[in-house]
Specification:
With 72 residues, this protein is mainly α. The chain has one domain. The protein has 2 helices and no strands. It has helices spanning 14-36, 42-71. The relative contact order is 0.17.
Length: 72
């Protein structure tokens, strides 16, 4: 099975989505520090805030996918 195949076995494992959500949450924490105390101005803070928002939405999506795949 191909890694990019949507029917691959790894896409049906809730643990996969939980691990990806955990990685996203770690990214959130890392960039949240930068957003709260920017060292190099407004551009860096805006970039960090955008990354935090993106990672938060991605983590939420992974948690929803994990809930749906484990409910089957």
């Amino acid at each position: 099975m191909s890694f990019l195949n949507p029917g691959a076995a790894w896409t049906h494992q809730p643990a996969t989505y939980l691990v990806l959500a955990a990685v996203c949450l770690l990214i959130i924490l890392r960039f949240l520090k930068r957003a709260m105390a920017p060292m190099s101005g407004l551009i860096r803070a805006a970039t960090a805030a955008a990354v935090v928002a993106f990672a938060a939405v991605l983590a939420l999506a992974m948690l929803v996918l994990a809930a749906f795949t484990s409910a089957r």
